Amino acid sequence: MKKFASLIFVILFVPLLLQAGHKWVVTYAKGVPCTDQGYVVAGEWAELAHEIEMRWMKGYDIISIAQGYTTWAAVYAKNTGMKNQNFVSRRNWYDFRDAMDEKFKNGFGLIDLAYGDGRYVGIFAKGANIKVPKYFVTGYFDQLRKQIKKEWAKGYRIDFIHFYEGRWIAFLEKQDKAVIQALDGTRTLNSFGHVIAQRWKQGYYLTDLNYGFDQWTGTFSKTKEYSVQAYDIGSHWGNLRSMIKKRWEEGYQIIQITEGW
């Protein structure tokens, strides 16, 4: 009987404990040109893909996508400057990489990338301000840092970084004017919050946030695209609904959604 009771405890409470450890982070900014923002969440990629296609039919574009702890989420908006948006979904990195390279050859830029349920999903688009990125893959964070420093010296800036299946994947864009950036990482989200506060004081904005290999990694940029910034944290998407609504009422726009532990 005790063994049976223990089994019931594991079945009922372990998933709740895991969910409590998981975090969604929504990053906002003022001064962002897009309008009419909204978001959609789904339990499976097929469901989210259908919702994305429905938003496209209504004139929206996807600006951020992520998957975390049984939930897929996407943020959409109008007046993004994008056109011909589409997505690519593949079951392994190499197939996705090949499809992505084909998109780049055809002049598409990568808007965002997500991995979940054994699936890579990339959102692609064209536009006047959208460039075909340069990217590289490495297995070690130290190597990532070294390579990024080399790319900064060549006039590139970090667009975004992801860590999936043991790979650090960095996407960068060539800039006409120098953009000052910094790359920071901490083991906990709480510690990273202190880093954000310090970087804000130094005149930086958080332009990319990623969780991978047991650490939170963020890219900070000195940019005139934003006037002020904020972020919210929730253990599951339901916690964030009222927070997001309040931020919109205050004039903020979502620039990224991400997740981690």
Please give a structural write-up.
The protein has 261 residues and is of the alpha+beta class. The protein has one domain. It has helices at 2-21, 45-57, 93-105, 141-153, 189-201, 237-249; strands at residues 23-30, 35-42, 61-68, 71-78, 82-90, 109-116, 119-127, 134-138, 156-164, 167-174, 181-186, 205-212, 215-221, 228-234, 253-260. The strands form five sheets. It has a three-stranded antiparallel beta sheet. It has a three-stranded antiparallel beta sheet with strand order 2-4-3, covered by helices on one side. The protein has a three-stranded antiparallel beta sheet with strand order 5-7-6, covered by helices on one side. A hairpin with a 2-residue loop joins strand 12 (205-212) and strand 13 (215-221).
Query: For the largest beta sheet, what order do the strands appear in spatially?
Result: 14-1-15
Poorly predicted ranges: 4-18
Tell me the count of domains. 1
DSSP E strands, number: 15
Question: What class would the helix/strand composition place it in?
Answer: alpha+beta
Series of H and E elements: HEEHEEEHEEEHEEEHEEEHE
Helical segment count: 6
C-alpha end-to-end distance:
34 Å
Helix content: 25-40%
Output mean pLDDT.
Answer: 92
Computed CA radius of gyration, to the nearest angstrom: 19 Å
Shape: globular
